[in-house]
Amino acid sequence: MKYFFQFLFIGLAFFSFGQKKTFELKESVLKQRALSPVRLNNFQWIPETDQYTFCSADWQSLQQSSVASEKSIELTSIKEINEKLGTAFAHLAFAKWVSKDVVEVSDGGSVYALYNVAAKTGSVHKLPEGAENAHFHSGSQRLAYTVDNNLYVDGRAVTKNKDKNIVSGQTYARSEFGITEGIFWSNSGALLAFYQKDESAVHDYPLLDINQTPGAVKFIKYPMAGQASEKPRVGIYNVKTKKTVFISPRSGADSYLTNVAFTPSEKYLLVAEVNRDQNHMWLYLYDLKGQLIRTLWEEQNDKWVEPEHPAFFPSKTSDNFIWISEKNGFNNLYFVDIKGENVKALTANKFVVKDILEASEDGSKIYYSATGPNPCNTLIYECDLQGNNRLLTSAEGTHRFALAPKGAYYYDGYNSLEVANSEYIWTLNGKMAKMLMVSSDKLAEYNIGSTEIGNIKGNDGSALYYRLIKPADFDRAKKYPVLIYVYGGPHAQMVTNSWLAGANLWMHWLANQGYIVFTLDNRGSGERGFAFESQIHRQLGTVEMEDQLTGVDYLKSLPYIDGQRLAVHGWSFGGFMTTSLMLRQAGVFNVGVAGGPVTDWKFYEIMYGERYMDRPEQNPEGYAANSLLNHTKNLKGKLLLIHGTVDDVVVMQHNEALLKSFIDNSVQADYFVYPMHPHNVMGKDRAHLMEKVLLYILENNK
């Protein structure tokens, strides 16, 4: 009977409890952003000044202010820009300054404009129909893009490959190694580097499009572990001569070419090459003829080497650069002489450097984000080229940073578990110059439970950080069922010192149905350093489950936990973890819901799968032990499997092979698909998904 009343919450827009509103399930899914704390939209410093701009709340105008001013004025608006340039931009979300008077405006991918806010004039640059992957170089006003498998610059074909298997200008290696794009302009726009991949030997994987009558098959290139991979090259295109030269891998045709960067002098191109086994990396310096000049960095590891950041050049007049490497156990910064004569460690932190953000105007100092000693934080540090470091942001939490062009000030926006959002301008000597905004928590008017961050000791002695959400009407004398929400995979960190500690609002909805919602970052998850993250090598799932069970033991030690009513849910790697726990630790959980799960690593793609598991023929025991197809006979309790039918990340073969194993073993499991959704179910259908997930848990965790 009590579950009947729990389900009533789904249909109620508001429920009076303690004079506060309670959100319905659909609202908790679809209004996460709307109920987030207010921030200044698109804060930016204006080049060469100490003035800054931000977008109005409706993204229609650009507001200007300064450190000394208490007010802001409208500098320009989307209406003005559209009238002056004959464009039809809907908002200024993608606006960015390119010089003191000129702002670049775009619609996010098909139209680019440069608008002079003083002269009220500008230029417009449009992609032709069917073009994609646009990269606009504002300085030269050149526009690079792809049409089908070829690369173009301002309407001129850079490549003319009729073979559709030869693809230029697009991301490759399935966006691993920090690769998010396939086109790279030099500083002046005179040179263009680009990826080209030969996919001839890569398997054509079928996806069914049901929106056509009859249904049609769409093929994607999907290289599975141990099979044939892409063969990459990096092209260097000279805009003036219209000539292209190519760089090929030196350690094997299917090695990886990553982290491409032109030097400021535009005399060289840096490329980080990783062998297919991903245990050896070389940072090569090439000239513009594609000839190797020298090796500037070499790194080996018996597990993996994974460069994720291109070279960072602190000075516009020097080719010396900063390189991020994990060779000493944590991402740290190294200053590298372009002549290969000197490498200097700038940091020796026992915590993770996340990214280099900016350099001072003279190139003498750089600013980077890092966790600091508490891995749940994102803090901002300053470092000079002699290796002197200092922490700029003393408040613990998650910080955003922007350095003023003249270097006297910086913008700091941050939030934490206790702070909804605060934004300030500081001087570099640590004095607050201006308070921009202190946001209220929009959820304060809602009946919402408490969130805590803590840590417990793992089997290897390391600290495992967790997030624990309690109901708004929590009563320590009661016994509560638990949902463990899990991801657990590499590069991901679920528990952060941020607003709601990184949780989704649906977790608070479930908590208010009388649940404890628990998440733990196990070994292998991100922002903890190589020793913590690499224990998963060749055995994905094993130590991760050990840590999740350590979390279960901790929960059962709490007096208010009903240890007989545990549920688990996750998506992608979290779907793999959910299914692993239900099958390989059968009986611990009453119910599991696994979305888009990897079920056998031999079905997953090469770049990710082989880094962590090696090739199937190199690690047959690891693949067999962690294949969930070999454990279906163990299922106890209820398991719901979910998949998007056009998932191109974890293809449906994973779930369908698992279902066949269940059938072969005469074991019942539940299955639900989302037609024409890829790896994540987004948009309005996400509310349907979370209702499916949470009602299944409420109905079966008894």
| Total domains | 4
Low-confidence stretches: 1-17
Rg value: 26 Å
* Number of discrete helical segments: 11
Q: At the fourth CATH level, what is the homologous superfamily of the largest domain?
A: Alpha/Beta hydrolase fold, catalytic domain
The general outline is globular
- Overall mean pLDDT: 96
- Under the CATH scheme, the architecture of the largest domain is 3-Layer(aba) Sandwich
What is this structure, in a nutshell?
The protein is of the alpha+beta class and 702 residues long.
Can you put this structure into words, describing what you see?
The protein starts with a helix and ends with a helix. It is globular, with a radius of gyration of 26 Å. By secondary structure, the chain is an alpha+beta fold. The model is unreliable at about 1-15 (pLDDT under 50). It contains eleven helices and 42 strands. The protein has four domains: about 1-30 and about 440-700, Alpha/Beta hydrolase fold, catalytic domain (Rossmann fold); about 40-125, no CATH class; about 155-310, Methanol Dehydrogenase, Chain A, CATH 2.140.10; about 315-440, Methylamine Dehydrogenase, Chain H (7 Propeller), CATH 2.130.10.120. A hairpin with a 2-residue loop joins strand 11 (about 150-155) and strand 12 (about 155). Helix content is about 15%, strand content about 35%. The strands form ten sheets. It has an eight-stranded mixed sheet, with helices on both faces.
